[in-house]
Amino acid sequence: MMSPRDIRCEEVIEQLFDYLDRELDEEMQHRIERHIEHCRDCFTRAEFEKRLRRRLGETSRVAAPESLHRRLREVMESF
Fold first, then answer.
1. Among 27, 31, 38, 49, whose Cα sits 20 to 30 Å from the Cα of 68?
2. DSSP 8-state symbol, 77
3. Which residues are within 8 A (CB) of 19 and not within 5 positions of it... i.e. 6 or more apart?
């Protein structure tokens, strides 16, 4: 059985957004969940990000203009 120490806080923070978006493989998702269950600092950070996302989702009802979508696509394609 894995211990919460199998992943460091730095690794959790680096992958926090992918974790919240459920974009990690099942093993990594589970490792981060276990770490967050036992690490108060990482739990607090994850909860802050979850609440911020929820709040932004509640307040952002205006659609972004097509020009912004186009610019974002161009930037993303350049990587």
1. 49
2. H
3. 12, 28, 29, 32, 46
- Asked whether the beta carbons of 16 and 46 are under 8 A apart, the reply is yes
Q: Are 15 and 28 in contact (CB under 8 A)?
A: yes
- How confident is the model over 49-71, as pLDDT tens digits? 999 998 887 776 777 889 988 99
User: What does the pLDDT look like over 36-45, one tens digit per residue?
Assistant: 999 999 999 9
Please write down the long-range contacts of 12-17, taking CB distance under 8 Å and 24 or more positions apart.
12/36, 12/39, 12/42, 12/46, 13/42, 13/45, 16/45, 16/46, 16/49, 17/49
CB 22 within 8 A of CB 29: yes
C-alpha–C-alpha distance, residues 66 and 37, integer Å: 41
